[in-house]
Amino acid sequence: MAQAFSLFTVRDSILHRFHPLTKLSSAGFLFIAGLILPGTWTAYVVLVVIALPLALLGKVTRAWLAAAWRVALPFIISVFLVQGFFWPRGTPLVFLGPLSLKREGLVFAIASTGHILAVVSSFLLLALTTRPDMLMTALTQAGLPGNIAYIIVATIQIVPRFQAKAAAILDAQRARGLETEGNIIQRLRAILPLVVPLVLGSLVDVEERAIAIEARAFNRTGPKTSLIEISEATWEPPVRWVIVGVMVGMVGLSIWLR
Amino acid sequence: MSSRFKQDFTTVTLVLIPVAIAINIAVGQTIYTLKVPLYVDSIGTVLVGVLAGPWAGALTGLLSNLIWGLSGLNVTYAPYAAVAAVIGLLAGLFGESGWLKQWWKVILAGIITGLVAAAISAPITAYVFGGVTGSGTDVIQAMFQSAGFAVLPASFGQGVSSDPLDKTVTYLIVWLIVRALPERFMARFPRAENLKG
């Protein structure tokens, strides 16, 4: 349970060396293009033409496909079952007992699967190839308030500790005889003994952490220097602007055409 | 508002937010292993809302879903970041109105939050995920659609059938926790005065 709270995979690839913001804007482009472009098969084209080459460039294709498959599969199964068989008033194609597979529902399920894959694979591509702390440093240098960056970086650091703590509480309560695998009533009754110790225990050190960072000039105003230096090729900022421009254009056009 | 905004975002609030996000994630994962029809993944968000005000609550909710999504470990949560932000905002407003002092108002706050969450997440479920959540509640979606409802209203129906209960449980747990916290600890937070019964 207590694994590192990030999917980042170390590779020596061109994509890994890109500036984090270049990767963030590319992931945003994939997300937007996959979601809002019209057409049943458009999202699949976007995935094959843009996302797959990026994954190959980043040498993370196998991990990317495996993770996307794992996350998207329950949604894909659900969307085909629910929309294929329970589309209100459609043209029946195949009859299965009292149920019938509807044409309109299937088309909707195919388009939705494209959306789901675009959403899932854009986030995964960014997560697999970008170190979270590098992304935050890049965002801070681009003008994100330092407070927000602190919240995000601190979260990434403490989540694994909390997961370990939650697992320890689960083990301890089970050892004391708490039923966590019985019937639904027993499982519902297990919620409080698991949650309350975790939350109360976690809140205890908040005050000390606040004093500690205040003592290290956390509230000092003005520019601050960073330990991490991020390099980028000269072509990257203009390319980012083009990507963001096309993204804004796509959103604007889809609102205008609606 | 601006001065109240600054008062709410003290150093203690800023330190509390990552802890609250980690609570959302760790508790959400623990509840998931229990296989109960609840999520209980916004305890931290509601806690920050009532302790540090609506804006701090909204920020906690927003960042919870974005971080959980961008970590790559729960990517399907990221599109719901706006819903989580509204949950935190509402928690701040309920706290401000003194609704966390009486148990029946706590339950009411949970039900209202659940209805609002269902209303905002329905379009996201319908347009981004084709009306499904990839879990057992999709049976309810199928039931509504076979009764003749379109995808969007059926998604709202599906949300209404699970969110109010989930958020009521969340609020009751937060209420218990707030009552269990020592007074000296509570006094460090900007909105502590709203919570004394």
Shape annotation of chain A: flat
Rg for CA atoms of chain A: 23 Å
Radius of gyration of chain B, rounded?
A: 17 Å
Share in helix of chain B: over 70%
- Give the number of DSSP strands of chain A: 2
Structural class of chain B: mainly alpha
Q: Considering DSSP H and I runs of 4 or more, what fraction of the residues of chain A is helical? A: 55-70%
Taking the alpha carbons of the first and last residues of chain B, their distance comes to 26 Å
- Quaternary state of this entry equals heterodimer
Content of β-strand of chain A: under 5%
The SSE order of chain B reads: HHHHHHHHH
Identify the most extensive interface between protein chains.
Answer: A-B, 76 and 65 residues
How would you characterize the largest beta sheet of chain A?
Answer: 2 strands, antiparallel
Structural class of chain A: mainly alpha
* Mean pLDDT across every amino acid position of chain B: 92
Low-confidence stretches of chain A: none
Strand order, largest beta sheet of chain A: 1-2
Domain tally of chain A: 2
Terminus-to-terminus distance of chain A = 45 Å
Written description of the protein model:
- The complex is a heterodimer of chains A (258) and B (197).
- In chain A, 70% of the residues lie in helices and 3% in strands.
- With 258 residues, chain A is mainly alpha-helical.
- Chain B is mainly α and 197 residues long.
- In chain B, helix 2 crosses helix 4 and helix 5 packs antiparallel against helix 6.
- Classes of the chains: A mainly alpha (258), B mainly alpha (197).
